[in-house]
Design goal:
This protein is of the alpha+beta class. Helix content is about 35%, strand content about 15%. The protein is built from 3 helices and 2 strands; from the N terminus they run ββααα. The longest helix is centred in the C-terminal third of the chain and has 19 residues.
Length: about 90
């Protein structure tokens, strides 16, 4: 992985899957602005088949009923807002 690609990753923090659980999911955002879209060749493993990345419009995230998606979006919005107002 090129060194400058690490600067594109932003750790948004841990999100607990529920109030009654100690299971934590680390959440990241990645800035893909200006990167070319290209198909990749995978290894065809079961893990790869079960995991995927889907680029979607932000309105789909806002209208999602998945609490993890909403929590991640709120964290990203908070980060971007804080950055914009200089906090």
């Amino acid at each position: 992985m090129p060194e400058d690609s690490l600067d594109r990753w932003l750790f948004l923090g841990p999100i607990y899957i529920s109030k009654n659980s100690d299971q934590v999911i680390p959440v990241f955002a990645v800035d893909v602005t200006g990167l070319p879209q290209e198909e990749t060749n995978g290894d065809g493993s079961e893990k790869e088949i079960k995991s995927y990345l889907e680029m979607t419009d932000v309105s789909n995230g806002i209208s999602s009923d998945e609490s993890l998606v909403l929590a991640a979006f709120v964290r990203l919005f908070n980060y971007m807002y804080s950055k914009a107002v200089g906090k």
